[in-house]
Amino acid sequence: MRRTVFFVSESTGITAETLGHSLLSQFDTVEFEQVYMPYINTELRAQALTQRMQEAAERDGVRPIVFATMLDDGIRAILKGGNCFYIELFEVFVEPLARELGVPPSLKAGRSHAITKPSYYTKRIEAINFAMSNDDGVRPENFHRADVILTGVSRSGKTPTCLYLAMHYGLRAANYPLTEEDFERGDVPQLLYDCRHKLFALTIDPQRLQLIREERRPGSPYASLKRCQDEIRLAHQIYRRLQVPVLNTTSQSIEEISSQVVKALKENQEGQGALTIVETGF
């Protein structure tokens, strides 16, 4: 089955996209073609969008699904009148919440970040800059400043996970790639042992790793299945020596891996008060 899905908003569309993705993830037998439509903030744009919905319906033979965060009644009415299955996310959640709180909502677009403290926003930006400037072990002297360090073989998911931890949790995340030199000596620099309390190892199925590397460097020794198998095997020997948590990225998303890292960090820091985790859903 194939369905076209539109994520629509008067503003950036982050809320519609995030909630929509969470709902769609429960239907893994359906193929979704996803269309992002932020800043639909005029009736003219809404009318143009209904035409795109009609074209999708004719192409797919079934009406498209629309996840929307639309506060303007006029624009919302135009979209609802289109050939689509329309889900207004604010309607589902805001009205019951208003009844519980006993106060009306502001009904202003782009307010999702307003609830975040300015200091948290600044912390997140600093964390993103830290993750980018300390990627791939380029500045190991900064590991002592990191909140979390990831290690693993090339293309196991270190960089995107570090960026996600920075963007969504405000954590200063660095990573160390295991190299041929590490494999030859069967160990990593002492610096990583000194940081074991905030070190996490990533692993991945060799066949999956081979597919990822093949996309990057087709037909190369770097992408061969044997090399992938050897590196994963040697990496696990190092992980056992380090005695650090090992997280498998084969079938888990970046979000799932990150949540496990954050949970472990919270448990490690419980009662110490040394770590602030933002958790703002940026």
Automatic annotation (TrEMBL):
Q: Does the keyword Nucleotide-binding apply?
A: yes
Picking any one GO molecular function of the record gives: phosphotransferase activity, phosphate group as acceptor
**EC numbers on record:** 2.7.11.33, 2.7.4.28
- Signal peptide residues are none
Q: Which reaction does it catalyse?
A: [pyruvate, water dikinase] + ADP = [pyruvate, water dikinase]-phosphate + AMP + H(+); [pyruvate, water dikinase]-phosphate + phosphate + H(+) = [pyruvate, water dikinase] + diphosphate
Answer whether the UniProt record assigns the keyword Ribonucleoprotein to this protein: no
- Positions binding ADP in this chain are 152-159
What parts of the sequence cross the membrane? none
What keywords tag this UniProt record?
Answer: Kinase, Nucleotide-binding, Pyruvate, Serine/threonine-protein kinase, Transferase
The enzyme's main class, written as a single word, is transferase
- Name the family: Belongs to the pyruvate, phosphate/water dikinase regulatory protein family. PSRP subfamily.
Q: Which HAMAP family match?
A: PSRP
NCBIfam families in the cross-refs: PRK05339.1
Protein's job: Bifunctional serine/threonine kinase and phosphorylase involved in the regulation of the phosphoenolpyruvate synthase (PEPS) by catalyzing its phosphorylation/dephosphorylation.
Q: What is this protein called?
A: Putative phosphoenolpyruvate synthase regulatory protein
Q: Which organism is it from?
A: Thermochromatium tepidum ATCC 43061
Q: Which gene encodes it?
A: ppsR
